[in-house]
Amino acid sequence: MAKTRLSRRAFLRSTAAGAAVLGFPLPLRAQPKTFKIGAIHPVTGPLAEPGQACRLGAQMAADAINAAGGIKSKGGLKLELLLGDTQTKPENGRVEAERAVGQGAQMLLGSFDSGSTNSMVSVAQQKRVPLLVDIAAADPITANVAKSVKEGQQKVQYVYRNFPTGSSFGRNAVQYFTEIFKEASVSPKRVVLMHANDLFGTNQMRGFKAAWEAAKPSWEIVEIIPWPEPPSDLSTEVSRAKALKPDVLAPITRPASAQLLLPEIRKQRVELMGIVGPGSPGLYEAGQFAVLKEDLEYVMTSVPWPSFKNPRTLAVAEEYAKRTERETGRRRTFDTNSGYSYDAMFLIADILERAATLGDPDAIVEAMRKTRFAGGLMQYGGPILFNEIGDNPNAIATMIQILGQKPVAVWPKAAALQKFVFPRPKA
After folding, report:
1. How confident is the model at residue 329, as a pLDDT?
2. Which of 51, 122, 123, 367 has the smallest number of CB atoms closer than 10 Å to its CB?
3. pTM, whole model, 2 decimals?
4. Side-chain half-sphere of 234: how many Cα atoms within 13 Å?
């Protein structure tokens, strides 16, 4: 019988196949190295829509960084996201952060809502895993860690935030309220501040109130009305606000509470110059327009917003709209949530490029401390950097308004794409 000579390639192929069938382990091939980041957001539950926007923004940025060659100073190291879902439950921030670290995460990113972000902090500090807060405003998230390090209770601060704090939100909002009223040549006198009573809402309320007390503007906060978050009904709170005869209602909402609040304002026929929020979700997301429709028209809110005068932002926004349409059937706006998470990934890439080594978390922290990153797509008051608290003092808000069922930047003038409408037209 004639002998058949096997080529080396065929031999190796047949040997591998046989080994697999017999259950023998195959020789390991070198796998591409990755730097793992635990990206944790609320992608289910009441905050699912903004949480999903955060996740997609972070993933798009990671894809873009990897496609451009990864972390070049580290041999083209690629970024890998270990995705986590807090389910909009604050205690799950810690659970998901621990799970990500257990799977090899060398950094953490998250988490949108202040409660779950705050619960991630202890994991970052205990495990020595740097945490970059992409979105979450409550001041104590970073301030408490900075205080413990300063007092010697902890050695290193591993928590840094590229997002406005509640106190900075308050300063921006009071300034914008005053400037817009002046620009409109009107003089609202009575403002009723309403807010969700969770960590975020309470912190935002305190920041706005403190800024108002410091600025002493011509308008007055006549009452502060909290509601339990999540609420089941807001008719009592709206009735209380109506009785105060406000010129402006200033709500600090979550998406679910906005879906109760705005229709109730219409139902009770509260006469107002306008609804102007000091800064919160629930007033600009695509899902909110589908539910609230005309109840959102002319509403203003002071939130971090993309710089749509930047051609790169426009290109990313169009890609984001196309991806959301493919994946959800609805084009969504590149906004606060997707934008800040997108910037966070590029900020992480910049930090990793500059870190002396990625094997030591303290080296990563050292690179974070020295950050001066000017490549973000959001509106900033200067390059991204971190102060002694671990916050970015150049993270600022933009006043947006719902015009033609779309969120549009209207103040300050340098960021505005359209002229604001205030007072709002009477029905």
Report:
1. 86
2. 122
3. 0.89
4. 28
